[in-house]
Model the fold of this input.
Amino acid sequence: MPVMNHAASVAVGLRALTCLSLLSFRKRKNLTILTIIRVLPIPGHCPCGGGVTSSVPFRGFFLWSDLLMRCFHLFHGRWSRLSVLSVAAGALATVASMAAPSHAAVVLFGSGAGNTFDMEFVTIGNPNNAADTTGYPSPAGSVGYEYGIGKFEVSEDMIEKYNANFGTANNLVITKDNRGSAKPATSVSWNEAARFVNWLNTSTGNQAAYKFTAGGVNDNIAVWTSGDAGYDVNNKYRNSLAKYVLPSYNEWYKAAYYNPNDSNYYNFTNGSDTEPTAVVSGTTTGTAVYLQSFGQGPANVNDAGGLSPYGVMGLGGNVWEWEESSGDLLNSSSSVTRGFRGGDWSNNSGGLSSSTRGSYASPSFEDNGFGFRVASLSSSAPPAVPEPSMMVIGTLFGIGGLMAKRRLKK
Ligand SMILES: [Ca+2]
Ligand SMILES: [Ca+2]
Ligand SMILES: [Ca+2]
Done:
């Protein structure tokens, strides 16, 4: 689903604020001003990645402003103003729901006939959730911002499309196992996964996430330094201006083990402290792909067990997944080991558990049970304060309520 960027949602919020505050003026003035507001251009660019754009939220706003004007035509006096206020509140609720930042999206990557693919992201909301202290590492799982995470593990097909679009021409071909296009891409090192993620960014006009200074596809990154735009002293691996990244240990953990419906963490990715039912494949709720013979291999990425409470598939089981985070969680040295989680199709339930995190693998390590998935961020640094547009809209409801109260007293 296409989403608006923050600047656009702020613009709509501010315009709505102007609109509503003007409703306390006399009718004749309102009509003129609302007409002006209606014809003003509203920015419509939506850089949610992959060129996905939409003007639907703006159209929704125009429809509401039309309705507002009609109300003014039909009624007079304080009740008309109350009607207008309630309609305005409805309009703002509509705008708010449409403008609320969402990372849920299907994003198209690549270009050229036969060389594109879709990647689906699930929104992981509930920013500033408390950390879990009953798993490993502890604490883990608290994330201060909304983000998206790939609904599925990265498939072989996606890596092949990367190779066709970018890898071949740049001597950066990612090597992987060949089980089939819908199977998770394995024998992909952390460095190769980071190359893939960088291309997701640069091919969509975004900042590369990881700083490669050497030429080989499996050479280690460098850390970002204070002279680099997007440098983050707390995470020297990740450029804070990047949109697509490998999930940090907290981002992966929250998507896997946190249930937003009851704000609790569970030991397994089926939203339960009881291990999921082991299956070879399928999408039945409460199942995961594990306890299979090693020769069986992983299931297709979109057939890899039931969903997590947030709606993500295969976090537990199918293949192990790289975290962005270093084994020591510090992300301060580029050559140290990286973390990995979730277990593969041949592990027992211990591999899937919130208490299990692998941390021994060097960034150039390859294994036919190791894959990864991608996370998406707002295209600038994660917000540390509530969304400006939401604050504006909150203020609006306050103003609307005060105006309604005053008029009822008359
Ligand atoms: Ca636990
Ligand atoms: Ca490889
Ligand atoms: Ca997995």
Notes: Residues 77-99 form the longest helix (23 residues).
